[in-house]
Structure to design on (430 residues):
């Protein structure tokens, strides 16, 4: 638990509504229309509503694939490489994902040798004030979905659907 | 690989549909659904079948797969007539058709359950390889309910691929997915299927999405309203990868629409 009076750490947090496919599409469309693309043009091309587009942009920036400046979006060097890779794109992001919550905490807990559940990751993150939903069940379910989707694609974790447990890949 | 198809060269017919007709019966009166439909699908070809909604495209695909019986006409794989379901033919469905109580790996293994020639370990190896080929390495123990639509369809394709099919039949395989997911998956699935490393010799895909057809198909067979007959067959000779924004692409889209309308 965080010590009283001590500021909570600033963490990178993956938006709960973003999946790899959306980030891949954003990078492909940006690269296809580039070198820079207006955010409103991206919204039109991707047909995302603004809430989804902004979350997807946040995720892509967090992963180092794009940068946005004054309403324009550019691919980074990693973004260009990501766009050109034809398969297992998300594996390229393994190290970056490992620094983002909830993957960072799940990896830390799993590295202690025991498989970890989304519930344990949720408890640990709640202690530093990171939640995706105020209702514990929905929070766990969102964390589970993020871990299953990103952490397996990224090659960070293995998952056993029967036990609902994750372990280090 | 069957002996019949081992020596085929690119373009040689793998599937031959000859004068297939199908009648349903209503109060003993025949209700024609398909009339004299003929088509061929060659080695390393992807053939699209399109037509108005309800014209019998999926029924034709089921006849080719040996799941429905035609009233007249024949379907052959190389020189062997299809009279029922066969191990060389597999099908990918629009709505994935996964068993929700089985993991991704167990769903793929289910497709191999009738293979008496394989041990349990060999089946597992095949299923794992198919999941890897479709980009699902690591998702073996995940249940369908935890997968996105695109990933569910990848499991459907993996289940079909694991059986080492020569003929892959796809019934609107991308129509349950959002546009961007479908676009990504189309490219990947084409590369996976039309590839010497798989057993697949030919693909027949039913689709009502004309742009999807022009993007993927080597040939398109256009059916009329019911009772369906072939109103046109076009060989699409656009180079790959196909640029969906090019003028030639739109010209091909127009050609297919003009046959449909």
């Amino acid at each position: 638990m965080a010590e009283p009076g001590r500021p909570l750490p600033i963490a990178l947090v993956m938006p709960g509504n973003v999946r790899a496919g959306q980030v891949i599409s954003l990078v492909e469309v940006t690269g296809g229309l580039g070198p820079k693309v207006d955010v409103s043009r991206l919204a039109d091309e991707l047909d995302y509503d603004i809430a989804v587009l902004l979350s997807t942009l946040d995720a892509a920036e967090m992963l180092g694939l794009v940068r946005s400046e004054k309403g324009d979006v550019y691919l980074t060097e990693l973004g260009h490489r990501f766009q050109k890779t034809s398969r297992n794109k998300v594996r390229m992001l393994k190290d970056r994902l490992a620094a983002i919550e909830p993957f960072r905490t799940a990896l830390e807990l799993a590295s202690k040798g025991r498989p970890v559940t989304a519930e344990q990751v949720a408890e640990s993150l709640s202690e530093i004030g990171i939640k995706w939903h105020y209702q514990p069940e929905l929070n766990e379910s969102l964390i589970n979905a993020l871990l299953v989707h990103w952490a397996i694609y990224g090659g960070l974790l293995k998952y056993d659907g029967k036990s609902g447990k994750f372990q280090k890949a | 690989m069957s002996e019949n198809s081992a020596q085929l060269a690119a373009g040689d017919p793998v599937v031959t549909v000859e004068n297939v007709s199908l009648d349903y019966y209503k109060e003993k009166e025949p209700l024609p659904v398909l009339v004299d439909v003929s088509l061929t699908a060659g080695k390393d070809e992807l053939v699209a079948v399109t037509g108005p909604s309800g014209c019998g495209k999926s029924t034709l695909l089921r006849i080719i797969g040996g799941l429905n019986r035609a009233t007249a006409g024949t379907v052959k794989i190389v020189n062997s007539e299809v009279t029922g379901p066969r191990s060389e033919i597999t099908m990918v469905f629009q709505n994935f058709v996964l068993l929700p109580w089985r993991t991704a790996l167990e769903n793929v293994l289910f497709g191999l359950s009738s293979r008496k020639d394989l041990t349990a370990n060999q089946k597992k190896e095949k299923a794992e390889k198919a999941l890897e080929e479709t980009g699902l390495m690591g998702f073996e123990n995940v249940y369908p309910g935890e997968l996105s639509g695109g990933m569910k369809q990848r499991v459907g394709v993996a289940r079909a691929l694991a059986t080492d099919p020569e003929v892959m039949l796809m019934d609107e395989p991308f129509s349950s997915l959002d546009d961007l997911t479908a676009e990504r998956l189309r490219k990947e699935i084409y590369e996976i299927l039309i590839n010497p490393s798989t057993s697949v010799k030919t693909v027949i895909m039913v689709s009502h999405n004309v742009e999807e057809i022009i993007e993927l198909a080597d040939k398109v067979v256009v059916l009329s309203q019911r009772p369906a007959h072939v109103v046109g067959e076009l060989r699409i000779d656009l180079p790959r990868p196909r640029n969906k924004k090019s003028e030639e692409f739109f010209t091909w889209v127009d050609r297919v629409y003009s046959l449909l309308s």
